[in-house]
Amino acid sequence: MNNKPVSTFRLITIWISVFTVTLLLINFTAAIVLSFLQEKEKLDIFANGDKLPDYTRNQFRFRLPNYNDKNRAREIYRDLDRLQATYRPYVAWSMEPYQGKTVTIAASGERVYPPLLADRNSNVVKRFFGGSTMWGVGVEDKDTIPALFNAKQPNTAVYNHGQFSYNSRQELALLLNLLSSGEHLGDVLFYDGVNDVAVNCRADTGLNSHNREKKMRRMINAYPQARKLQQEGPGLLDSFRGLFIGAIQNLFIELKRDKSPRKTSSWDREHWTCHKDPAKAQMVADNLLKNWQLAHDLVTKAGGSFQAVLQPVALFANPRLDHIEQELAYWGSELPAQYRAVYPLLLKGIKKLDVEWITDASSLFDGDELFYIDFAHVTANGNQRIAELILEQR
User: Which end of the chain is more exposed for a tag (fewer CB within 10 A), N or C?
Assistant: First the structure.
């Protein structure tokens, strides 16, 4: 009797089994290595300053000379790195509740300064609207603009309605949300300019847009396919691919990824277009002023007072920037050109309106003092100067 076919079949079966087990082990090992590399990258971000590249992007900003207490600054960026956003009707997003060493976010999705929460029962209300500069990127809870204002006005119930990337149109929507909910508005301040230019001057957005429009549209358009996949589950081929080589593929992608700090701009050319389109630049400027006017009318009709502040930006006027040269290089030449195109139009429009409730703070940080940590955000000394300006304008 010939056993050769049986032996050959047995050898093939053994070879396939060994290959399958080996591939599973390699994929499992790749998953462990990938997890280690990703965790190590997070830890390296907050390692000793001497081991970090001399660069300021993202979490490396805690090394800037603006910060006297580097350890405390490191905690600020640790908290910043852990924040999550969630969907909010009409305004698109806000932060999830969070309690860290330097950042506190309430259930409402808004940043608060816990020691002053007891004053929320005051009949005197001041609401601050804006983007991440008002929210307070780069500072701890007590050093945001609203908190510093509240420290000088302890009998006022102060609300920080600032959110990441919000422009004046989203702030107007949030103001309407408060009105329709029956909230007492009190006095209101809008702090704008940076995001209206950075968002509305983009080639892929309109005047009534926001920073996540393209991403949200893409996700909504992909929903039918995602829903189908959720109902039917992954195909057999996808399941096998994930089981045997998924982690290996992801590890190769991670190893090939360039982790060196960006020292030049990675932005597409013509990502922003106001500098080449004077009509669009004018529309962006007019849109901000119209949103301020609408907010003013709503607030004053409700019995409160309204202030609008044109915020400073590092890419306009004459602040000290030698400490963040590489950070500014990250944005390239197009983004500064947007502010040079739109801010003069805003200043012209503000002068033409000639109303006491608009304040131009665009040159407030001019001089030799260090304020900026990037093209928009500042350390506590900058927020203190803004809070003092607001108190003067009351």
Answer: N
Three-class secondary structure of residue 309 per DSSP? strand
Neighbours of 338 (CB within 10 A): 24
Query: For 291, left (φ over 0), alpha (ψ -120 to 50), or beta?
Result: alpha
Q: Helix-strand-coil percent breakdown of the chain, rounded to 5?
A: 55, 10, 35
C-beta separation of 267 from 331 below 8 A = yes
Question: Residues in the chain with pLDDT < 70?
Answer: 1-6, 34, 37-59, 115-121, 223, 225-244, 246, 251, 254, 256-269
Separation CA 286–CA 350 (nearest Å): 10
DSSP string, 358-379: EEE-TTTTBSSS--BSSSS-B-
Both tokens of residue 358?
A: 């608009």
Output the six-digit token pair for 273: 């277009």
Q: Which residue has the tokens 């300064």?
A: 113
**Structural domains of the chain, with CATH:** 75-216+270-393 (3.40.50.1110)
Q: How far apart are CA 355 and CA 223, in angstroms?
A: 47
pTM here is 0.79
